[in-house]
Structures are given as structure tokens and as C-alpha cells.
Amino acid sequence: MCSKFNIVLVTISLRCLLVLASDPDPLQDFCIPNPKLGAIRTTSLTILPCKNSSDATTEDFVFSGMKTAGNFSETGLAAVPANPTNFPGLNTLGMSFVRADLKVGAINPPHFHPRATEITYIMQGSVYSGFVDSSNRVFAKALEQGEAMVFPRGLVHFQMNVGDKIAIVFGCFNSQNPGNQKIPSAIFGSGIDDKLLEKAFGLSSKQIGTMRRRFVRKTVR
Fold first, then answer.
1. How many Cβ atoms sit within 10 Å of the Cβ of residue 182?
2. CB 184 within 8 A of CB 110
């Protein structure tokens, strides 16, 4: 009896962990946000009430924004996200997407998603992709068109175009709000004390200043 009881407890615990590792299950078929009803803001996210399901249209469940690349940054990366903000039909379904275009030699710098696992699919080109686990072991290779790779939730991962043409990558997340924390910006653009950074990275105060100027957040006026 005790053995069976322990097995049941373990099974229940594993199921609970699986539930906690993803977005909450929806309580209805879908929830198309209705901005006119006013947003409910919490410390971590903004919740939009659903509009009446009878008012939903096919267009709520269609997204055409990934037909072309987004605007390229100075680093040669262009990203077009698809989430409930611009794709209403995704709301409460626990998933989101992104199209990323990388110019030749461009990178998607080391970053992680605190609330989601990501599967990345190479639609065009050759992309060096990988992640680092909690023992600092790196899993990486150059992925070719048609190949996919999974980045476990919360682990640092990265990409670099190693081909001779623009690379197109499609990413899928198991959260509608995966979050995105870029390592360089988090370290040098967040206001961590310079002395700590000097000791952590063995850099001089002048070098720390140079890094800060590259990654510090620009004040929006």
C-alpha cells in the first residue's frame, strides 16, 4: 500500500510541475482581447478582458505580419514577434512566435526566456545555434535550412548567421509572454555597480564604461 501510495504522490507531483511550467489552461475556446473594456494591470503583465465570442471574426485568428522581414537593427537582426498584442487570436492559448532575419555575419546575442521553451526552425540559410546548460556545457552546431533545435526554458541560447545570404529563422514559444532577457544588456545596461563588474570580469573601470555606453538603455523622451 505504501509503495502504491508513494507512486501516486510522485505522479501527482510530476503533473503539478508540468502544469506550473506553462501558461494557465484556458477556460473557454478562445479569448479575443477587447481594449474598449479597459485593461487590468498587475505587477507582471497586462490583462485585457475578452470580447463576446459572437463578435470574433476570422481575421482575429490570422496574422500576416511574417510575410516580410522587420526593420534591421545596427547588429543586423530583424525580428517580427507574434503575440496577443498584434495577434489577438493567441490570447490565453499559451503560445507565441517570432520571425528573425539575420544579415550575413549577424548575431542574435546570448539571451534567455524565463517563461518559455523555444523551438527554432531554419527557414533559409545556415545558422550557428546553441544553448548552455546549468553545468556550462554548450550544445551548438550550424543548422541548415529545414533543421530545428530546441532551447530549454530559462537556458542561455544564441544564434549567428554563418552562411553567405540572409538567414530566416522561425521561433515558437510555449508561452504567450515568454520574456526576453539579453545577457549583455542585463549585465552592462542595468546599473549594476561598476566595482562588482570589474571584479567579476577582470575589466578596468574604463572598459566597463565602454561596455556601459554600448548597452545602457536610452532614455525615451
1. 15
2. yes
Tell me phi and psi for residue 168, to 5 degrees: -120, 125
Set of cell numbers at residue 53: 465570442
In three-state secondary structure terms, 147 is coil
In 3D space, the residue among 102, 95, 107 whose CA is nearest the CA of residue 70 turns out to be 102
Q: What is the pLDDT of residues 44-81, one digit of tens each?
A: 556 678 888 888 999 999 999 999 999 999 889 999 99
Q: Which three cell numbers stand for residue 143?
A: 543548422
Q: Give the separation between CA 10 and CA 21, rounded to whole angstroms.
A: 17
Instruction: Report pTM.
Output: 0.78
Distance of CA 134 to the CA centre of its chain: 18
Four-point Cα dihedral 22, 27, 29, 34, nearest 10:
-90
Task: Please report the DSSP string for 2-42 in residue order.
Answer: HHHHHHHHHHHHHHHHHHHTSPPPPSSS---B-GGG--EE-
Q: What is the pLDDT of residues 6-48, one digit of tens each?
A: 444 444 444 444 444 567 676 778 899 887 766 666 555 566 7
C-alpha cell at 175: 508561452
Tally Cβ neighbours within 10 Å of residue 60. Answer: 17
Strand partners, 138: 132
Residue that has been written with the C-alpha cell 550544445 in this structure: 139
